[in-house]
Structures are given as structure tokens and as C-alpha cells.
Amino acid sequence: MEEKNLKDEKNPSGPVKIGKYKVWVDRNLCIGAATCVAIASKTFTLDKENKAVILKTADAELEESLINAAKGCPVAAIFIEDEKGNRVFPK
After folding, report:
1. In terms of C-beta density within 10 A (0-12 exposed, 13-18 middle, 19 or more buried), how is residue 6 classed?
2. In terms of C-beta density within 10 A (0-12 exposed, 13-18 middle, 19 or more buried), how is residue 36 classed?
């Protein structure tokens, strides 16, 4: 994974702003199952450590796909908050 494809090169797993949401992946929880990649391939990919990172193309992802990717994570490693800081997932 080239760093130039990341939404935030300094914080590859976030937190980053995607549309109206703040999204991040807890790298300590992530097990590299890649369910997020399968569901939201414009947002997520795995790095060389098999941890989910957020791509700069994330803004093109459908909101529904982003939330479904978080819900599909088997270890709930993807966190989403709205613009007011309210947790969208996991609740």
C-alpha cells in the first residue's frame, strides 16, 4: 500500500473525516479479516501488517457501505461518529 493512496498518511487508520462522519480503525483490535475491504473497497484496504487503513477515495463511498463495513467487522474494530461526536457504530 503506497502512502500516497491514504486519506491521512500520518494516521493511516484514522481518525479521518469521511463525509459527515469521523471514522477510525482500532489497530489493536483489527485482525485483518478484510470484511471491511469486501464491503467498502473505496474506503478500506489492508496494509503490510494486515491492518485496515483508510484510502483517500473514502469520500466516494456510499454512507450505507461505510456503516455496513463497520457492522461487518468481526471484532468491531471500526468506529464511526457523527458530526456532533455521537457514536454511530458501535453503539
Report:
1. buried
2. buried
How close are the terminal C-alpha atoms of the chain, in Å?
31
Length reported for the chain = 91
Domain count, the chain: 1
pLDDT (average), residues 1-14: 87
CATH of the domain at 57: 3.30.70.20
pLDDT in tens, 50-90: 999 999 999 999 999 999 999 999 999 999 999 999 999 99
Query: Can you give the pLDDT at residue 2?
Result: 60
Asked if residue 43 lies in contact with residue 55, where contact means CB atoms within 8 angstroms, the answer is yes
